[in-house]
Amino acid sequence: MPQILDGKAVAAALTEDLKKQTAALVSRGVVPTLAIVRVGERGDDLAYERGAIKRAQTAGVAVKQFILPADCTQPQLLETIDAINHDAGIHGCLIFMPLPGSIDERAVRERLSPAKDVDGITFASQAAVYAGRDEGFPPCTPAACMEILKFYGVDPKGKNAVVLGRSLVIGRPAAMMLLGASATVTVCHTKTRDTASIARRADILVAAVGHAGAVTPEFVTPSQIVLDVGINVNEAGKLCGDVLPEAAEIAGACTPVPGGVGSVTTTVLMKHVVEAAEKQSGINN
Amino acid sequence: MPQILDGKAVAAALTEDLKKQTAALVSRGVVPTLAIVRVGERGDDLAYERGAIKRAQTAGVAVKQFILPADCTQPQLLETIDAINHDAGIHGCLIFMPLPGSIDERAVRERLSPAKDVDGITFASQAAVYAGRDEGFPPCTPAACMEILKFYGVDPKGKNAVVLGRSLVIGRPAAMMLLGASATVTVCHTKTRDTASIARRADILVAAVGHAGAVTPEFVTPSQIVLDVGINVNEAGKLCGDVLPEAAEIAGACTPVPGGVGSVTTTVLMKHVVEAAEKQSGINN
C-alpha cells in the first residue's frame, strides 16, 4: 500500500504559516488582498471562486470580486485590469480563463502588472519559471506539487523526475520547477514512444495527462512518488485522477484525487498573494 | 565512423535562402538591418562581431554598430537602446553580454523592443521559447542545433532527446525547442546521477556542458546523433567541443568542433533579422 500524500494536511500547514504572515502584515496596516476577475457565470469558475474565497478567509486574505457580464467588451475588461493595477490596496489578481472568444486573451494577460500576477499568466512570470528565477509567480498547480514534495521532505535534487504532459499550465512549469530544484527531468507527451518504460525510471512521477486511467500499473514502481494532477470524471461519474487505482497501489507514495494536489492550489494562490503584499509593501516577515 | 554534420554546409544553404529573401525585401525598399551594441573592446565580442558582419554582408543584411566605452553609464546605454527601438530602419538588435558590472543588465535587456530581440534576450522571447509559441526569437545557438537537424532531415518527433546542460542560453532553450518539435526530452546537469546511462538512451544528444572531454564513449551509441555545442580549449591549446574524439567516433552522426554548431549561429542571427524585417514591414516572402 502506498503512503497517501494528503493535500489537505499540506494546505493546513501552509495556511498556519500564512495566518502568521497575514497577521504581521495587518498589524502594520497592510491587508493582503486578492482581486478575482470573472467574466460570465461558468460553473467551474464559480466553484473555484467559492473555494478560493473560503481559503482566503481562513488565511486572512481579503478578496475583491470584479464580475463582468459574459458579453463584456475588450475595453471594459482592460479598464478593469488597469483599475486593479493602479489600486495599491490590491496585491494580486486571478483572472478566470478561458475568456469569451470575442476577447483577445493575450492582450488581457499582458495588461496585468507582473507584480500582481499571482497565477503566473504573464510573459514575465512564464519567463521567470522557465529561467528558474525566484521572481514573478508560477502557476498554482505545479507550485502545489512542489509544496507537497517539500511538506513530505522529498528533495528533488539528483532524482529522476518524469512529467507526463507538456501544457503551459502544468506540464512545462512542473518540469521547469523540478529542474530548478535540480531533478533530472524528462517530459513525455502524446508523441512519446513507450511512455510506460520511461515513467518506470522516475523517482518522482507527475501525471498531468488529463484523462482518467492514463497511468496504468506498467508506469509505476514501488520506489516511486506519484503526484496525480489529473481531475477527471470516470465512467461511473466519479471524480478521479489520471492514475488508475491499481497503479496507485503499486507506488511508494501517491496523492489521492480528490484530496491531493487540487486541495493545495488555492492555498498556494493565497501564499502568492501574501508574498506579493510583502514585496509591494516592503514588509518582510 | 560517424557521419559528419557539417555546419558550414548548413550555413551555406541557409545563406542562399536568405539572399533571396533579402533581395525581395530590398526590391521593395526594405534593407534588413541589424544593430550591434557593444560596450568596451572585449576580444570575444570583437571576434564574434567580425564574423557577424561578414555573414551579414554575404546574406544581404546591413549592420549598424553602436559602440560605447567600457565606462559608459546606464542612462547612456538605455538611450542607445531607445534610439534603436525608435529607428524604423533597424529591424533587429544584438547586445553583447555580459555587460560591465556597473550596468543593470536586466534593465537593458527589457528595454529592447521584443520585436527587435533577434538574439532572444527579453522576457517575451524567453516566454515564447518556453511556451513553444512561434513568435519572438530563440537564442541563436539552440536555434542553430534545430537548423542542423532540419538540414539533415532529422525530425525530432517521437525521438528521445537528451540535453546535457540547463543554461538559459543553450540547455533550457534547446530542451524547449526539441519539446516543441515533439521529442521526448530529458535535461541532465551537474546534479544528475549516472548521466552516461541516461545519455545512452538518446536518439539526439545535445552536449552543452561547457568543458572539454565531458562526453566520454560511455555516453554515446552508434544510433545517436550528437550535437556538440561546446567551444572549449583543450590542454594542447586547441579548440575543441564537449565530446571526446573517441566518443564522437562511436556516434552515428556528429557535429565537429570547429565547423559544427558554431558555424551556424551567426547565420541564424541573420535569419532572425530577415524575419524581423519581414514582420515589421508587413512583407512576407
Strand order of the largest sheet of chain A: 1-11-8-7-5-6
What's the name of the CATH homologous superfamily of the largest domain in chain A? NAD(P)-binding Rossmann-like Domain
Q: What portion of the residues of chain A fall into strands of 2 or more residues?
A: 15-25%
Distance between the termini of chain A: 40 Å
User: What count of domains describes the coordinates of chain A?
Assistant: 2
β-strand number of chain A? 11
Element pattern of chain A in H and E: EHEHEHEHHHEHEHEEEEHEH
Oligomer: homodimer
Mind telling me the C-alpha Rg of chain A? 19 Å
Structure description:
The structure is a homodimer of 285-residue chains. With 285 residues, chain A is α/β, with parallel strands linked by helices. Chain A has 2 domains: 28-115, Leucine Dehydrogenase, chain A, domain 1 (Rossmann fold, 3-Layer(aba) Sandwich), CATH 3.40.50.10860; 140-263, NAD(P)-binding Rossmann-like Domain (Rossmann fold). Helices cover 41% and strands 15% of the residues of chain A. In chain A, helix 1 packs parallel to helix 10, helix 2 (43-59) packs across helix 10 and helix 5 packs across helix 7. Chain A is globular, with a radius of gyration of 19 Å. The relative contact order of chain A is 0.17. At the A-B interface, helix 5, helix 7 and strand 6 of A face helix 5, helix 7 and strand 6 of B. Strand 6 of chain A pairs antiparallel with strand 6 (184-188) of chain B.
